[in-house]
Amino acid sequence: MTDTSMHLTTDEIELWAQGLLPAAQAMHLADCSLCRTEAERERKVILELVQLPKFAPSAGFADRVMAQVRVATPSGDWTTT
Amino acid sequence: MFSLLYRMVRDRALAEDLAQETFIKVLNGIKSYRPEFKFSSWIFKIANNAAIDHLRRKSIDTLSLDGAPNAETPEQMRATSLQLGDRAESPLDEVENRELGTAIERAIARLRPEYRSCILLRHVEGYSYEEIADTLELPLGTVKTYIHRARNELRGYLEDRRD
């Protein structure tokens, strides 16, 4: 019978999924099928999230933004670039 | 920042508009930047507010698929209902479907916007819980709750798909 007071918290499971849980706490997973199942499910979703690609805006985006930004002129007036 | 906006609104052109709005606000309002804040967090905060504002406005404007709220007869409901097949798919739609069509992207889209911001900042941008709390101006406990609930919901959606 597993001691429920020893179950890993959600934060600990997240740390384990990222390989950051101290070994002493991680040992609990070897004995507790409840925590192991929960941790594996959590790891799968975290892995899917961290592997998501980064997207970039289309070409010319920076130029379009800078065309609308006001910059200070030497006289102290504001103008668009 | 563009990735966050794109995943929040799931429309490339709109995400670019919001990104542009964000950068213009940042560059024009640079004097209001407080250096005790991480610069990137400040940008994410402005971007996230822009996305949330947009989604709130959109939810008010959204038509019911079943037709106008005051439609009482089946004829009235049919006449005012949204016809999903009406619009031909444009090349941009195809890009969006390819980029955001995976199961995990579709699952993220089903989350509440507040959960979506938190989970994206945490696991896609790599922010700590404390940084997310600062960026979104939420209590740390709320951020933790949102992220745990978001991951639970994502697990549910992904596991339903596998069943």
In short:
The complex is a heterodimer of chains A (81) and B (163). Chain A has helices at 10-17, 23-26, 28-31, 33-50, 61-66; strands spanning 70-72, 78-80.
Describe the structure.
The complex is a heterodimer of chains A (81) and B (163). Chain A has a single domain, classed as Arc Repressor Mutant, subunit A. With 81 residues, chain A is mainly alpha-helical. In chain A, strand 1 and strand 2 form a beta hairpin. Chain A has a two-stranded antiparallel sheet with strand order 1-2. In chain A, helix 1 crosses helix 4. Chain A is elongated. Chain A has 5 helices and 2 strands, in the order H-H-H-H-H-E-E. With 163 residues, chain B is mostly helical. Chain B has a single domain, classed as PhyR, sigma-like (SL) domain (Butyryl-CoA Dehydrogenase, subunit A, domain 3, Up-down Bundle). Chain B is built from 9 helices and no strands. In chain B, helix 1 packs across helix 2 and helix 8 packs across helix 9. The longest helix of chain B has 23 residues. The radius of gyration of chain B is 18 Å and the shape is globular. The mean pLDDT of chain B is 83. Classes of the chains: A mainly alpha (81), B mainly alpha (163).
Query: β content of chain B, as a range?
Result: under 5%
* Number of H- or I-type helical stretches of chain A: 5
The total of helices of chain B stands at: 9
- Spatial shape of chain A: elongated
> How many DSSP E strands of chain A?
2
Oligomer: heterodimer
- The overall pLDDT average of chain A reads 82
User: If you consult CATH, what is the topology of chain A?
Assistant: Arc Repressor Mutant, subunit A
Indicate the CATH topology of chain B. Answer: Butyryl-CoA Dehydrogenase, subunit A, domain 3
Pair of chains with the largest interface and how many residues each contributes: A-B, 23 and 25 residues
The H/E string of chain B reads: HHHHHHHHH
> CATH superfamily name of chain B?
PhyR, sigma-like (SL) domain
Q: What order do the strands of the largest sheet of chain A run in, or round the barrel if closed? A: 1-2
Low-confidence runs of chain B: none
Assigned CATH architecture of chain B: Up-down Bundle
Distance between the termini of chain B: 34 Å
- The stretches of 5 or more residues of chain A where confidence is low (pLDDT under 50) are none
CATH architecture of chain A: Orthogonal Bundle
Mean pLDDT of chain B: 83
